[in-house]
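quick one before i forget lol
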Amino acid sequence: MHKEKAISTASGIGVLLLVLAVFVGSIAGLVTAIRTQNVGVLLASLGGIIVGIFLAAGLFVVNPNQAVALLLFGNYHGTTRQMGLRFANPLYTKLRISLKARNLNGDRLKVNDLMGNPIEIAAVVVWRVEDTAEALFEVDNFEAYVKIQSESAVRHLASAYPYDAGDDEKSLRGATDDISQHLQRELQERLGNAGVQVMEARLAHLAYAPEIAHAMLQRQQASAVVAARKKIVEGAVGMVEMALQELNARGLVHLDDERKAAMVSNLLVVLCSEHAAQPVVNTGTLYQ
């Protein structure tokens, strides 16, 4: 396995000036040789031009957030991240690679969640090259590798969680932070051998597939209604219990079991009803 190693390169400014001087001198000598028909000067001038071209081949520019891997006859010798005009062995093959952060806006994938429901899911991945040697030599095309592995990780993530669940269970819709961390960890494990660092990974799209979207919406609405009713009933029962305790503690009225049941029924109807209660005045006794 190839690992990145740093290699030192010389500043290219001095070499550039030397190359310019060689070219100027060689051209001047070439003109002189043609005028004087001096073969020795002609050969020397041609040799100077060849040397200048050879030296110029060793010059290269390293831009900010860029690295250049240097190979000699197929052997990896190192990577330089020194910015500016640099000079190295002219025989080196120079492979440039960007170190900038990149966004991968994944396509919408149609997969099944943990419960078998068809859903649409997509993710955004922010990544950058960390080890240039692994990125260049361990995989065929690291950009295509990132895209394919990201798609595979999103599919695996979707099948590991339900789309929606209760409060005590993680779901794709409910536990967004945990899901994002899970996706980032899995992507880092998959892309680590390609010299890639996953900086962030988040779901960009999540929805039920169109063929079941309407039915699942009705299911969510029904679940919300049931949950709301449950809260209302729990609160109403608590209020009735409190009312009976307060009446009994203060001794305001003494009710037998039948009248307590009637009172509980009436209070529950009032408290759980969606409409305002209509008052009825009882002009008789409590038992009429």
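fyi The mean pLDDT is 83.
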